[in-house]
């Protein structure tokens, strides 16, 4: 089911009247983006009682499981809009950029915490590593959905947690 059909259905509104609640389709996309972050379970990254890298891995394991559980039908809304719509709307491009920056900042915080705890090489540039991990994840989602396979997830976890962050 497409987002255009499922959102109005979930709201109990006919598709034609759904967009009457927004000034434009762009505004509805921006609202969807603002709500999407809540489903990314960023709280996993700051949950007490677990080492930083375990929390980072748990965050991505959750996201990967969500993709598998959906039958590889869902990817990342931020990435999808970035790839498909950002060239056509400066406002959406800016929102996508901001979303990625906030996500990378959360990853960077976890990596910094891991360095401070001695879990991670102090020489690792956490800013670059965070951007790389996020970019690798977005590519992983695309490959997993295209293949309808969890093999790209396996490669992501091996390379990120077994090589880069080991």
Automatic annotation (TrEMBL):
According to the record, the signal peptide region is none
- Residues forming the Tetracyclin repressor-like C-terminal domain are 52-159
- The molecule here is called TetR family transcriptional regulator C-terminal domain-containing protein
UniProt xrefs under InterPro entries: Homeodomain-like_sf, Tet_transcr_reg_TetR-rel_C_sf, TetR_C
Keywords (alphabetical) are: Transcription, Transcription regulation
From what organism does this protein derive? Streptomyces carpinensis
Q: Which Pfam families match?
A: TetR_C_13
Which lineage do the record's taxonomy fields give for this organism? Bacteria, Bacillati, Actinomycetota, Actinomycetes, Kitasatosporales
Query: Does the keyword Disulfide bond belong to this entry?
Result: no
């Amino acid at each position: 089911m497409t987002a255009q059909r499922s959102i109005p259905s979930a709201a109990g509104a006919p598709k034609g009247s759904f967009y009457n609640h927004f000034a434009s389709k762009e505004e509805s996309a921006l609202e969807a983006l603002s709500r999407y972050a809540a489903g990314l379970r960023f709280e996993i990254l700051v949950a007490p009682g677990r080492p930083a890298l375990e929390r980072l891995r748990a965050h991505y394991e959750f996201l990967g499981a969500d993709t598998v559980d959906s039958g590889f039908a869902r990817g990342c809304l931020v990435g999808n809009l970035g790839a498909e719509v950002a060239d056509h709307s400066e406002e959406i491009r800016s929102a996508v950029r901001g979303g990625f920056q906030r996500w990378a900042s959360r990853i960077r915080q976890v990596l910094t915490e891991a360095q401070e705890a001695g879990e991670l090489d102090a020489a690792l540039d956490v800013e670059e590593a965070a951007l790389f991990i996020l970019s690798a994840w977005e590519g992983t989602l695309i490959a997993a959905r295209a293949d309808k396979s969890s093999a790209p997830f396996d490669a992501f976890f091996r390379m990120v947690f077994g090589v880069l962050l080991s």
